[in-house]
């Protein structure tokens, strides 16, 4: 197993590689630890699973679709950028101007530094670190964030998000991940499977308005559904979200602890043959609704892992 680090156009690019299988992951540490590429092998064929939608139009630092973005310290939207916590009101900058919300936190474009490298016969792992010290308007709660990326010889990739409250008071917190996946070339060949309880319907600001019963265990055809919703998952120690390509009998699996990530977004951007699959600790606008909101005590740490693998089905 190998780890390569290069500087490209001012960005620190990290590649973790299995030279025997050519499986690899590519990370931009300078832009929120963005996972730029993930190549895994199944049946002796290498598959690029990650895509960066609209990369030709937007630089990664300003891509409004937040490809592979780290959602922290809130997920999705805070209505009007306003929230109250422990008796105080806070105003976040509005960065979704068309809907009037604060969206996706502020860590997706922050610079991360290399904290640790681990490389042996079983895996290559890189751990990144970024310290936040109260320099973002409306969030006066310092914390440290760690991101871990591991590629194993068995073809499994793991991404771990960790955050520690470095302040002297409780801190409102939610986190998640916003990767876009591709499998094949067309949405009409893709079906998504996951164990859900509810689907949230949104209002004009894309804030959940109400929940309706919804179960996707039998499959949701992406071309028919074209999802852009939050779902409440059945809480299990190991939950699996499966994106299946019917033509090739190939499936991409996201596995995670849904007691840590009980909310999940599926989103297909318009005119793009990809889907964002987003495990989240809290619901959209949880800073106001408290649905899934975590309150980290001083020195308390949150950590959650998402595993990605490929398998043949059928």
TrEMBL record:
Entry-linked InterPro entries: Aldose_1/G6P_1-epimerase, Gal_mutarotase_sf_dom, GH-type_carb-bd
Residue ranges of coiled coil: none
UniProt-listed GO biological process terms: galactose catabolic process via UDP-galactose, Leloir pathway; glucose metabolic process
CDD domains in the cross-refs: Aldose_epim
Keywords: Calcium
UniProt keyword Plastid present: no
Cofactor(s) in the UniProt record: Ca(2+)
Molecular-function GO terms, alphabetical: aldose 1-epimerase activity; carbohydrate binding
Superkingdom: Bacteria
Entry keyword annotation includes Calcium: yes
Subunit structure: Monomer.
Name of protein: Aldose 1-epimerase
Species per Swiss-Prot/TrEMBL record: Sandaracinomonas limnophila
């Amino acid at each position: 197993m190998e780890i390569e680090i290069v500087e490209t156009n001012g960005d620190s690019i990290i590649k973790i590689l299995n030279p025997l299988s050519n499986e690899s992951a590519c990370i931009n540490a300078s832009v929120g630890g963005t996972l730029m590429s993930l190549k895994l092998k199944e049946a002796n064929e290498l598959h690029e699973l990650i895509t960066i939608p609209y990369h030709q139009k937007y630089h990664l630092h300003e891509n409004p679709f937040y490809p592979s973005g780290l959602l922290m310290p809130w997920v999705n939207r805070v209505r009007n950028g306003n929230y109250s916590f422990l008796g105080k009101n806070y105003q976040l900058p509005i960065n979704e101007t068309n809907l009037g919300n604060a969206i996706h936190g502020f860590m997706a474009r922050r610079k991360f530094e290399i904290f640790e490298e681990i490389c042996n016969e079983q895996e290559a792992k890189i751990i990144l670190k970024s310290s936040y010290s109260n320099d973002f308007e409306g969030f006066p709660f310092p914390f440290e964030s760690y991101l871990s990326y591991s590629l194993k010889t068995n073809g499994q990739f793991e991404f771990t998000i960790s955050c520690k409250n470095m302040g002297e008071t409780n801190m409102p917190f939610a986190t998640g991940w916003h990767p876009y996946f591709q499998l094949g070339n067309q949405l009409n060949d893709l079906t998504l499977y996951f164990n859900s309880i509810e689907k949230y319907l949104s209002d004009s600001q894309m804030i959940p308005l109400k929940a309706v019963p919804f179960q996707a265990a039998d499959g949701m055809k992406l071309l028919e559904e074209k999802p852009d919703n939050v779902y409440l998952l059945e809480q299990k120690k190991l939950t699996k979200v499966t994106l299946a390509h019917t033509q090739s009998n190939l499936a991409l699996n996201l596995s995670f602890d849904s007691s840590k990530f009980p909310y999940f977004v599926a989103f297909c951007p318009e005119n793009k043959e990809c889907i964002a699959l987003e495990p989240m600790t809290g619901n959209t606008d949880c800073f106001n609704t408290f649905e899934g909101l975590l309150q980290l005590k001083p020195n308390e740490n949150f950590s959650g892992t998402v595993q990605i693998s490929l398998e043949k089905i059928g």
